[in-house]
Specification:
Layout: H1 5-9, H2 16-23, H3 27-44, E1 48-51, E2 53-58, H4 84-96, E3 101-106, H5 112-128, E4 134-138, H6 144-153, E5 157-159, H7 167-173, H8 182-195, E6 198-205, H9 212-225, E7 229-234, H10 242-246, H11 253-270, E8 275-278, H12 280-285, H13 289-295, E9 300-301, H14 308-311, E10 343-345, H15 353-358
Parallel strand pairs: 1-9, 1-10, 2-3, 3-4, 4-5, 5-6, 6-7, 7-8, 8-9
The chain binds iron/sulfur cluster.
């Protein structure tokens, strides 16, 4: 006899088949998923949403990922890199508004000069904010020594997106050139964890060629890797990419959003105390997308604090939300009327309980 959604949700362990059934749930059954994820979120991480002020540090990138607007061969964007002063000014402004944490995100550059600049930026952020602002990095594949230097400088979380954890799909969305190696990316993720960072990754949902079985594999990978945080994003084509112009995803945007919400809820159910980021790409598909992801189990958002003049240049996908200043009266930008009982964690780092437990810092 086939198991129903309600029966599967009573289980403590979930097989690949169970997860695939959950992913297949319709709108009505998905409400059960979201409700279960909400109960687990409240019990294990609480109903506070923590902020990571996002600094899009640079759109210069040595890679050529087939889905990304910052890819090396895209000649239609103006490349930029923030100066240390510009990045610091953005951090200080966010800190004064109550942000407890920032994320420095940028294209992948492997050079001594880049490593030095980031190390210096981390140190100056920590010093000028009296060590009050936590620093997350999302700067791609680097040598182990560079991860160590950035960690020692004071960054404590690192997000390295895999987008797709399976080799076959990964190789379909990345060019087979000397910069792209499936093994190297996974080795980097392990090196990040071994360095001591709270370790995060990200998935793209609704990619061309992707199946529900792939997505179930992704969730099992996250569980087995024992990840501390994850960002789930619906795949959105970028016009200046081969995946964008091809328009070959088998999923409509709305369907990708629905799948992303189900992935978020299932991840919360199988990894109860990790941090799950509600991505800005959710908002690009649905104006209430970020709030829906929070109701489905996410507990982190990353409001953009990049200086306005640079934002036009940082478009990894189409339909990215228009540049806006942070509203000082509502720095999260969330519609809190949709999120009863949710608080915004101002002046807090909002570290993953999972990480503390993994490091035996809490019982
Ligand atoms: S996804 Fe990241 S590594 Fe790939 S091209 Fe875009 S910025 Fe570069």
């Amino acid at each position: 006899m086939k198991k129903g959604i309600a029966g599967i949700l009573l289980q403590k362990e979930f097989t690949h088949e169970d997860i695939t059934v959950l992913l297949r749930s319709d709108e009505e059954d998905a409400k059960l998923l979201y409700a279960q994820a909400a109960i687990i979120k409240e019990k294990y991480v609480g109903n506070t949403v923590y902020l990571r002020g996002l600094i899009e540090y640079s759109n210069v990138c040595g890679k050529n990922c087939l889905y990304c607007g910052s890819r090396r061969e895209n000649r239609n964007i103006k490349r930029y890199t923030l100066s240390e002063d510009e990045a610091l000014e953005a951090v200080i402004s966010a800190w004064r508004l109550g942000f407890g944490s920032v994320t420095i995100q940028g294209g992948e550059i492997e050079s001594d000069n880049h490593a030095d600049k980031i190390e210096s930026l981390i140190r100056v952020i920590r010093e000028k904010t009296n060590n009050e602002v936590g620093v997350t990095l999302s700067l791609g594949e680097q040598e182990r020594d560079v991860y160590r230097r950035w960690y020692n400088a004071g960054a404590h979380r690192y997000l390295l997106r895999l987008e797709a954890t399976g080799r076959e799909l990964y190789n379909k969305i990345h060019p087979l050139d000397k910069e792209n190696h499936y093994e190297k990316r996974h080795a980097c993720l392990r090196a990040i964890k071994e360095t001591g960072f709270q370790t995060g990754t990200g998935l793209l949902i609704g990619l061309p060629h992707q199946t529900l079985s792939d997505l179930a594999d992704d969730l099992i990978f996250l569980r087995d890797f024992d990840i501390d945080m994850c960002v789930m994003s619906p795949f959105i084509e970028h016009t200046d990419t081969s995946e964008g112009t091809g328009g070959i995803s088998g999923f409509f945007l709305k369907e990708r959003l629905f799948l992303t919400l189900k992935m978020t809820a299932i991840l919360r159910i199988i990894m109860k105390d990790i941090n799950i980021i509600s991505s800005s790409a959710m908002q690009a598909v649905d104006t209430e997308g970020r709030e829906k992801a929070i109701l489905a189990g996410a507990n982190i958002i990353m409001p953009n604090i990049t200086p306005l003049k640079y934002r036009e240049g940082y478009k990894l996908y189409n339909h990215k939300q228009e540049s806006k200043e942070i509203d000082p009266a509502n720095v999260s930008g969330l519609n809190l009327t949709l999120l009863p009982g949710t608080e915004i964690g101002l002046k807090k780092w909002g570290d993953a309980t999972h990480y503390k437990r993994r490091k035996n810092l809490v019982l």
